[in-house]
C-alpha cells in the first residue's frame, strides 16, 4: 500500500480503480443486507403482537382451525366481553391500576426526597446513608426471610404488600441524585438566603426541576409495578379480590399450557365451556387478556423513549 | 500543672466540637427528618431479613420461639451438596445464565454495530423504538407469546414446515434438550434492543475524525467496524462483562417457572425455583434458606472478584 503512493504505475492504477469500484458497490450491498436484516428484526418483534391482537378479535372456535395470520377471519368482540363479564379480570385491572399509580407517586416523591438530602454536600449523614442504600443493590436476604418479614409486619394478604416493600430504589436514587448534581448550586443558595428550609427547597425548587429525569424513572417504576406478578403469587394468592392483572394472566397461561400438554385436560376444559361460550376458548381469552395487559405500556412508552438514553447514561455514572 | 492545662484544653476543645456537631445537626434537622425515616425503612426491609439466615443453621419449626429452635450447624448445606436434585438445579442455573450471557452480549453488540451503520435518522429511530418494545412487557406476556409461537401449530413450526426444513412439527416445549436454547432465545427477543442502548451511546462518543481518517486510507466498512468501532466500545463491553459476573447464579426465575412443565423439569429448574418449591410449597424453610444463602454468597464473592479484576484491568471499579 505504501508503495503505490510514492511510485504510481499501471498496476497500482488498476488497484485504485478496483478500490473505487468496490467503494461504490460495497456500501450498496451492505445497505441492502442491513435493511433486510432490520426489516426481519421489525417483523420478528412485531408479528407476535399483531397475531395476538388478531386472535383476540377472532372467534375462538374459528382460531382453532389455524392459519390465522394478520387479519381476523371471524371478527368478534366476544373474547373481550367474556374477559370483562367474568368480573375477576375487571377487578384485577382495577387493582393493577391502583398499585401502579400509588407505587409510582410514592416512589417518585420519596426517592427524590432522599436523593435531594444525599446530594447536599454539607449533610453530616450523607456518606453512611448513601453507603447503606447502595449496598442493597448488590444483595438481598432472599425469598424465605423476605416472606417471614412480610408475615411479621402483617402485610400478607393486604393490598399494601404491593406498595410498601418497594417504595425506594437505590438505583433510581443514584440516577436522580446525579441529575440534581447538575442543577445550579446557586438556586439552592439563594432560596436559603430567602429563608427557605430544606423541605421547601426540595419541594418547590428541586422536584419541579427534575421533571425530565422523573419522567424516565416514572416509566421504569410504573412498568415494574404494572408487570409484577410474583408478589401477588406468593403474598396474596389466597385473596382473589387482591389479584393483579398479570397474575390472572399467569394463571390463564399456566392452565392453557397444561391443557396443551395434556389432551384429557383440554377436552375437559372444552366441555365446561358450554354452548353459550362456544366462540370463546382458553386460547382466545388468553390473547385478549394479553392485549389488555400490554396496551397501557404500548400507549405510554413511545412518548418516554427520548428520555431512555439520557436516563441510562446518567445511571451509569456512579458517585 | 502542665498536664492539667492540656487536659483542660482537650476537654474544652471536645466540648466545643460537640457543640459544633450539635448545632450542625440542629441546622440540618430538616435534612435529617427527610432522610432518617427512609434509612429506617431500608434497614427494616433490606437488612432486618438477614436475621432470617439463622434459619439455615437450625431445624426451623415455625411455631417455636427463637430460643427453642434446634441448632444443627451446616447440616442443611451438607445435604444440599449431596442432593442430586440440587446439583442438577445448580447445573441448570449455571448453564442458562452462561447461555444468556454469551447470547445477550453478542447479539446486542452485533445489532448495535448494524444500527450504527444506518444513516437515515428516521429509519434508525423506528427500528430502535420497535426493538425496545418487548423490554417493557412482562415475562408473562412474553412467555405467552413464546408458548404460542412454539406450539405444534405455531408460527415457528409453520415456517419450518413450509421451508421443508422439518417433516413434522417439533414439540419444542416438551423436550428438555431444547429448553435452555428457548430460554436464551426468549431473553434475546425481549432484551436485545434494550441492551443496544448503552453500546450505541458509547459509539456516539467515538471521535468522527477517526472514521474520516480511515475513509481517506480507503478502509472498508468492515475494517472500520473492526478497527475503530469495536475498540471504541471495548471499555463498555469489558465493564458490562465484569458487572454481569456478579449475576452468574441469576439465570432468572420467571421464564423457567412460566415455560417449564412436568416434561422438562430436569432442565428447567433453577435455584430460585428450588427455593420456592422447598421453602414456600413444602415448608422446608431451613433448606430453602440455605440454598438462598449459597446463592447470595456466591454472588457477592463473584462481585468482589469482578471488582478486583476491574481494578487490575484499569477499568472503573464497581464498589
Plain-language structure description:
The complex is a heterodimer of chains A (319) and B (319). With 319 residues, chain A is mainly α. Helices cover 74% and strands 0% of the residues of chain A. Chain A has helices spanning 2-6, 10-56, 60-63, 78-85, 88-119, 126-135, 143-152, 170-181, 185-193, 198-209, 211-227, 230-235, 245-261, 263-273, 282-316. The longest helix of chain A has 47 residues, at 10-56. Chain A is flat, with a radius of gyration of 28 Å. Residues 1-9, 261-277 and 315-319 of chain A have low confidence and may be disordered. With 319 residues, chain B is mainly α. Helices cover 72% and strands 1% of the residues of chain B. Chain B contains 14 helices and 2 strands, in the order H-H-E-E-H-H-H-H-H-H-H-H-H-H-H-H. In chain B, helix 3 (75-82) packs across helix 14 (285-312) and helix 8 packs across helix 10 (221-245). Chain B is flat, with a radius of gyration of 28 Å. The mean pLDDT of chain B is 87. Classes of the chains: A mainly alpha (319), B mainly alpha (319). The interface between A and B is large, with 88 and 91 residues.
Measured by residues with Cβ under 8 Å of the partner chain's Cβ, the largest interface is: A-B, 88 and 91 residues
CA distance, first residue to last residue of chain B: 51 Å
What's the overall geometry of chain B? flat
How is the main sheet of chain B built?
2 strands, antiparallel
* H/E element sequence of chain A: HHHHHHHHHHHHHHH
* Average pLDDT figure of chain A: 82
Query: For the largest beta sheet of chain B, what order do the strands appear in spatially?
Result: 1-2
**Through-space gap between termini of chain A:** 48 Å
Instruction: Bin the strand percentage of chain A.
Output: under 5%
Q: Roughly what is the average pLDDT of chain B, rounded to an integer?
A: 87
Strand content of chain B: under 5%
Q: Spans of chain B with pLDDT under 50 lasting ≥5 residues?
A: none
Helix content of chain B: over 70%
Radius of gyration of chain A: 28 Å
Give the structural class of chain B. Answer: mainly alpha
Percent helix of chain A, as a range, is over 70%
Number of separate strands of chain B = 2
Secondary-structure element order of chain B, as H and E?
Answer: HHEEHHHHHHHHHHHH
Amino acid at each position: 500500500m505504501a508503495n503505490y503512493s510514492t511510485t504510481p504505475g499501471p498496476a497500482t492504477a488498476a488497484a485504485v480503480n478496483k478500490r473505487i469500484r468496490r467503494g461504490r458497490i460495497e456500501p450498496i450491498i451492505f445497505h441492502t443486507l442491513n435493511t433486510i436484516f432490520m426489516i426481519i428484526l421489525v417483523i420478528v418483534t412485531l408479528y407476535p403482537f399483531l397475531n395476538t391482537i388478531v386472535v383476540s378479535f377472532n372467534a375462538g372456535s374459528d382460531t382453532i382451525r389455524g392459519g390465522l395470520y394478520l387479519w381476523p377471519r371471524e371478527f368478534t368482540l366476544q373474547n373481550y366481553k367474556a374477559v370483562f363479564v367474568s368480573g375477576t379480570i375487571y377487578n384485577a385491572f382495577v387493582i393493577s391500576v391502583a398499585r401502579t399509580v400509588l407505587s409510582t407517586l410514592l416512589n417518585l416523591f420519596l426517592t427524590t426526597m432522599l436523593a435531594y438530602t444525599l446530594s447536599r454536600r454539607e449533610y453530616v449523614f450523607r456518606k453512611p446513608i448513601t453507603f447503606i442504600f447502595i449496598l442493597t443493590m448488590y444483595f438481598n436476604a432472599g425469598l424465605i426471610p423476605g416472606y417471614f418479614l412480610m408475615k411479621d409486619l402483617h402485610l400478607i394478604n393486604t393490598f399494601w404488600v404491593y406498595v410498601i416493600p418497594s417504595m425506594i430504589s437505590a438505583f433510581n436514587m443514584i440516577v436522580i441524585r446525579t441529575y440534581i448534581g447538575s442543577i445550579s448550586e446557586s438556586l439552592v443558595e439563594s432560596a436559603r438566603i430567602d429563608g427557605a428550609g430544606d423541605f421547601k427547597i426540595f419541594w418547590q425548587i428541586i422536584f419541579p426541576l427534575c421533571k425530565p429525569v422523573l419522567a424516565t424513572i416514572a416509566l421504569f417504576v410504573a412498568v415494574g409495578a404494572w408487570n409484577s406478578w410474583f408478589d401477588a403469587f406468593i403474598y396474596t394468592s389466597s385473596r382473589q379480590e387482591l389479584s393483579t392483572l398479570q397474575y390472572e394472566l399467569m394463571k390463564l397461561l399456566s392452565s392453557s399450557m397444561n391443557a396443551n400438554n395434556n389432551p384429557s385436560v383440554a377436552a375437559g376444559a372444552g366441555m365446561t365451556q358450554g354452548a353459550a361460550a362456544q366462540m370463546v376458548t382458553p386460547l382466545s381469552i388468553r390473547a385478549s387478556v394479553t392485549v389488555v395487559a400490554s396496551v397501557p405500556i404500548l400507549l405510554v412508552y413511545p412518548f418516554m423513549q427520548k428520555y431512555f438514553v439520557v436516563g441510562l447514561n446518567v445511571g451509569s455514572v456512579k458517585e | 500543672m502542665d498536664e492539667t492545662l492540656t487536659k483542660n484544653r482537650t476537654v474544652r476543645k471536645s466540648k466545643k466540637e460537640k457543640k459544633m456537631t450539635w448545632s450542625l445537626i440542629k441546622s440540618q434537622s430538616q435534612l435529617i427528618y427527610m432522610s432518617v425515616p427512609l434509612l429506617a425503612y431500608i434497614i427494616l426491609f433490606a437488612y432486618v431479613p438477614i436475621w432470617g439466615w439463622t434459619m439455615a443453621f437450625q431445624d426451623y419449626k415455625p411455631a417455636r420461639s427463637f430460643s427453642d429452635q434446634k441448632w444443627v450447624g451446616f447440616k442443611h448445606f451438607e445435604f444440599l451438596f449431596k442432593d442430586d436434585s440440587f446439583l442438577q438445579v445448580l447445573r441448570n442455573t449455571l448453564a442458562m445464565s452462561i447461555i444468556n450471557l454469551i447470547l445477550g452480549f453478542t447479539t446486542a453488540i452485533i445489532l448495535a454495530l448494524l444500527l450504527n451503520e444506518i444513516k437515515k435518522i428516521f429509519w434508525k429511530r423506528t427500528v430502535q423504538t420497535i426493538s425496545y418494545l418487548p423490554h417493557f412487557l412482562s415475562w408473562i406476556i412474553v412467555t405467552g407469546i413464546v408458548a404460542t409461537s412454539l406450539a405444534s401449530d405455531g408460527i415457528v413450526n409453520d415456517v419450518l414446515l413450509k421451508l421443508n426444513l422439518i417433516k413434522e412439527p417439533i414439540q419444542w416445549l416438551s423436550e428438555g434438550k431444547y429448553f435452555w436454547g428457548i430460554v436464551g432465545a426468549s431473553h434475546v427477543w425481549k432484551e436485545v434492543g434494550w441492551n443496544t442502548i448503552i453500546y450505541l451511546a458509547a459509539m456516539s462518543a467515538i471521535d468522527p475524525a477517526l472514521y474520516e481518517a480511515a475513509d481517506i486510507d480507503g478502509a472498508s466498512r468492515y475494517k472500520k467496524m473492526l478497527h475503530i468501532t469495536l475498540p471504541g466500545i471495548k471499555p463498555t463491553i469489558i465493564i458490562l462483562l465484569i458487572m454481569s459476573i456478579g449475576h452468574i447464579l441469576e439465570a432468572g426465575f420467571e421464564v423457567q417457572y412460566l415455560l417449564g412443565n412436568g416434561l422438562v423439569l430436569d432442565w428447567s429448574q433453577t435455584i430460585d425455583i428450588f427455593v420456592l418449591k422447598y421453602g414456600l410449597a413444602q415448608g422446608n424453610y431451613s433448606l430453602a434458606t440455605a440454598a438462598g444463602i449459597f446463592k447470595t454468597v456466591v454472588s457477592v464473592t463473584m462481585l468482589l472478584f469482578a471488582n478486583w479484576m476491574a481494578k487490575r484491568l484499569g477499568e472503573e471499579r464497581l464498589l
